[in-house]
Write a structure and sequence with these properties.
The complex is a heterodimer. By secondary structure, chain A is of the alpha+beta class. The two termini of chain A are 42 Å apart. Chain B is mainly alpha-helical. Helix content of chain B is 76%, strand content 0%. The two termini of chain B are 31 Å apart. The C terminus of chain B is likely disordered. Classes of the chains: A alpha+beta, B mainly alpha. Chains A and B meet through helix 1 and helix 2 of A and helix 1, helix 2, helix 4, helix 5 and helix 6 of B.
């Protein structure tokens, strides 16, 4: 065997070995995982996790991806004693692999320019709040550096519109009374955000 | 008699090198020229993202320019445009020179360069239009991976052919690294793309596959190319042998074995099996071995020749890059420790670290390599030593400012985040001055890139002196010993 052939074999072996160890082994360990049935405190049963609904939440996830929310917001809660994620109220427990069962790709993220969103649906359950926050983060969160997403809204002045989810801007925000009309992307995105929650006690994986 | 023989031999060597350089010229002009174009485009996107973070109203009205799209567009422009294209150019030239052979399959490589440009341009367009995948370092839509993968196959074929038909039987350490990069990255890229866009990996395993890839694009693609160039250029310009041949082989194989496994340190504290993170931490610690061997080899070769480092544009950039490699690697290994990571994870500290790797190490070495190689291709010298000085100092000072500001600000951001009594918006407010310092650093780096682009443009267009002596930074002297630039 020539020198360059053995070099090539060594090179290929090292990278294939790490792919086997870091990707295929975990897939073997976790790939067979399914949803679990858990008992609620009131005695009824719940199946967790649930897939996103196809007509609004799943498209909302695509809006989240398309706008690149993941570059500032993580969706993973670190365990007790490692950071202050739980003390900040970002979740009820640490995140575990099962939380990401139906996520393709998972949007766990690696950056917290903004806060973690793993359970934003239960932390901030008001759709109105989310619409105002997306239109201009300064309305709800003075001093935020999140960009405004005004392009997800139409506005109408003076008379309240006939749609059910129009949101009135605060009086001191604009000169004339103004209502926000979220477009389809905004509605889907907020539906997705409201669906984000990591409830129930689940075990971490060793 | 003996003297005449030596002179004849020297002339033959010069002639052989000229023939090799001529064979590389049309291909490298496409790859190098395009890389400078993407450097400028990536820099513009970088500045835009940076400004948007402290001034969120800046150009906020239009979805294609929202932060969450401009930022991944910046990353992909500099990684797949600037870094990869300059890396391919350097790889081809070094392999040809070290193998003492002309570049084979020039037409295919030439076309591949233009195909690569179209692909990167199209991919960036798709990201700005909202089709980005939100898979970090793999944001191009899956179909964009097909021409990139095809391009890599051409590169693999060329590298294999050059390794098997080379005229120089000995393999220098640079060739090991280059052959490694050229085989590693296509495997990584194709496998990662397939894993991310198929059910071969599911749920959180996709995040693991993501970081296996994203860490290795630096470790097994840009790092080996950067190290190969440094291993070639430092002894070449100093006209003395590398400190230790055996250390360089040890460094290569320990990098090959350990770098692969380090990527899961990006998921410390994350929703993955605990053993996976432990593997990543161990891999990161073991990286001390290749890093120290490379550091000893590069720095011990340079020691005692600092005057040349000051005078030669190539050496200045390459030695700055080699020193940054030591720094970024030590920082990276330490950051993989759980106690450090608890604070640094999710903050701007990580962004500073990434730029220390891709910019202060890789890009500075790439600049140095281009300062050495382009005059040999164009058979012309750099037209202005002042512009080279501007490039060096604005890049070096800009990068240092960038790293110091975001490392300090990011570390404190992490400390505040781990104190639940500090409201989140107060942390955001705390980081804003550091985000401004990043924009200021970015403007400096932009100045350097424009100076570099002007130099390259003038060289390609035929301005600048003829090749009788190199452009040096302090004085021009024919009696100055050693190689050119």
């Amino acid at each position: 065997m020539t020198r360059s052939a053995s070099l090539a074999l060594g090179i290929i072996f090292t990278v294939v070995a790490s792919m086997f160890g870091l990707v295929l082994l975990p897939e073997r360990q976790l790939g067979g995982m399914g949803p679990v049935t858990l008992a609620r405190p009131d005695g009824t049963e719940a199946v967790y996790p649930q897939p996103l609904d196809a007509w609004r939440e799943a498209p909302g996830r695509e809006v989240y991806r398309s706008l690149g929310c993941v570059y500032c917001h993580s969706q993973q809660v670190r365990p007790e004693g490692f950071g202050a994620d739980l003390a900040r109220g970002w979740g009820r427990r640490r995140s575990v692999p099962r939380d990401y069962l139906y996520q393709d790709p998972p949007l766990a993220g690696t950056m917290r320019t903004g806060p973690d969103l793993a359970s934003i649906g239960s932390r901030q359950p008001s759709a109105q709040w989310h619409y105002l926050h997306l239109y201009d983060p300064q309305i709800t969160s003075q001093g935020s550096i999140m960009p405004p997403y005004r392009f997800l809204f139409d506005t109408t002045h003076h008379r309240p519109p006939a749609t059910f989810d129009a949101v009135k801007l605060p009086d001191d925000y604009s000169d004339a009374p103004t209502w926000l009309l979220p477009n389809a992307d905004a509605r889907a995105l907020v539906a997705y955000l409201l669906a984000l929650e990591q409830p129930y006690a689940l075990e971490a994986v060793r | 008699m003996a003297e005449a023989e030596t002179r004849g031999e020297a002339r033959n060597t010069a002639l052989r090198r000229a023939v090799i350089d001529a064979s590389c010229r049309p291909v490298l002009m496409v790859w190098y020229g395009s890389s400078v174009f993407w450097l400028l485009a990536g820099t513009a996107l970088a500045l835009l993202s940076s400004v948007k973070l402290h001034t969120p109203e800046f150009l906020a009205g239009w979805a294609p320019l929202t932060f969450g799209r401009v930022r991944p567009a910046h990353l992909n422009a500099v990684i797949y445009g600037w870094a990869s294209m300059s890396g391919v150019g350097t790889t081809l030239w070094l392999m040809a020179r070290l193998g003492r052979q002309r570049l084979p399959w020039r037409r295919a490589l030439y076309l591949m360069g233009w195909l690569w440009n179209l692909t990167v341009g199209f991919g960036l367009y798709k990201i700005l239009r909202g089709a980005g995948t939100s898979i970090e370092w793999l944001e191009f839509p899956w179909y964009v991976a097909i021409p990139i993968g095809a391009g890599f196959l051409v590169l693999v074929a060329v590298a294999v052919r050059m390794m098997t038909t080379r005229r120089a039987p000995h393999l220098y350490v640079s060739q090991w690294y280059l052959f490694g990069a050229v085989l590693w990255f296509p495997i990584l890229y194709v496998a990662a793309t397939a894993l991310m866009h198929s059910p071969a990996a599911t749920g959180i395993t996709k995040a693991v596959a993501n970081w296996w890839f994203a860490h290795n694009i630096l470790g097994l693609w840009l790092t080996p190319i950067g190290l190969a160039a440094a291993y070639y250029l430092i002894p070449k310009v100093l006209a003395k042998p590398i400190h230790s041949y055996y250390l360089s082989i040890l460094g290569f194989w320990t990098l090959a074995i350990f770098y692969n496994w380090a990527g899961t340190h990006h998921l410390i504290g994350g929703p993955v099996p605990a053993w996976l993170v432990t593997v990543g931490v161990v891999g990161s610690m073991m990286m001390f071995i290749p890093v120290i061997t490379v550091a000893v080899n590069h720095h011990f070769t340079t020691i005692g020749s600092f005057r040349k480092v000051v005078v030669s544009p190539t050496l200045r950039f390459v030695v700055f890059g080699a020193m940054s490699y030591t720094l970024v690697s030590v920082q990276g290994s330490l950051t993989a420790l759980r106690t450090v990571n608890e604070t640094s994870h999710f903050t701007h500290y990580t962004i500073a670290h990434a730029h220390l790797g891709v910019y202060a190490f890789y890009s500075m070495v790439a600049f140095g390599a281009m300062y050495y190689i382009l005059p040999r291709l164009a058979r012309r010298e750099w037209s202005s030593s002042a512009l080279i000085r501007i490039h060096f100092w604005s890049a070096a000072i800009g990068m240092t400012m960038y790293w110091v500001g975001l490392t300090w600000g990011g570390w404190n951001q992490g400390r505040m985040m781990n104190d639940p009594d500090i409201p989140f918006l107060e942390i955001v407010r705390y980081t804003i001055p550091y985000l401004w310092s990043r924009s200021a650093a970015g403007i400096l780096m932009t100045v350097g890139h424009v100076a570099f682009a002007v130099l390259v443009f003038r060289m390609v267009r035929g301005h600048g002196g003829d090749a009788e002596g190199p452009t040096l930074l302090w004085w021009r002297s024919a009696s100055e010993p050693g190689a050119r630039t």
